[in-house]
Amino acid sequence: IVPVLEDADQERVVRACASGAVSARDAAITLLALTTGLRACDIVALRMGDVDWRGHTIGLVQQKTGNPLTLPLPALLLSRLAAYVLDERPRSGDDHLFLRVKAPHTRLGDHATVHRVTVETFRKAGVAEVKAGTRLLRHNAASRLLAAAVPLPTIAAVLGHASEESTNLYLSVDRARLLDCVLPVPDAVRS
Fold first, then answer.
1. Strand partners, 169
2. What is the pLDDT of residues 81-120, one digit of tens each?
């Protein structure tokens, strides 16, 4: 069974991102991973032109599969992203969406940077007992999509899985549906 966030822990993280307890950049990165399940390499590679501000979407070509993907940006994520771009993002000739805070203001180094951001966001949210990172956030996003009755092929496309078989792993997280599959114990076995 893949690890996912408890509802209360997810709420703490979202609240910390919304309240300003973390920087707008770190909130946007964490919310992006939490709500979309994007891989860290795709978050690092995002460019300013990938955001459709009027359409409230983000479009990219997934690095692992080469598949194009357009995702909706929920209101909170969009507002934190706008706050970052308008108020926090350093001036730079680099058009990557997320930049280093310290000079030189260039794109984030790699997936380890995204991991550090999510760990720090979780710490500030008071969620210390959970091992934060984009893998957990990918699992969490997939399980939330599944719980919302999003079809497996759609979840596979969003997560950039080349095969639906890779997505079947998340079926183990949907407790309610798993309980529907349990057969009753015959009376003869009970005694």
1. none
2. 999 999 999 999 999 999 999 999 999 988 899 999 999 9
Greater model confidence, 166 or 27: 27
List, for residues 22-35, the tens digit of each pLDDT value.
Answer: 999 999 999 999 99
Strand partners, 58: 51, 71
Contact assessment for residue 2 and residue 139, using Cβ atoms and an 8 Å cutoff = yes
Of the chain, the percentage scoring pLDDT greater than 90 comes to: 55
Contact 62, 39 (CB under 8 A): yes
Q: Residue 11 is encoded by which pair of tokens?
A: 């709420």
Q: Which amino acid is at 168?
A: N
C-alpha to C-alpha distance for 132 and 185, rounded to whole angstroms: 39
Pairing of strands 51-52, 57-61: antiparallel
Q: 3-class DSSP state for residue 61? A: strand
Q: Which residues, at least 6 apart from 105, have a Cβ–Cβ distance to it below 8 Å?
A: 90, 91, 92, 94, 99
pTM of the complete model: 0.83
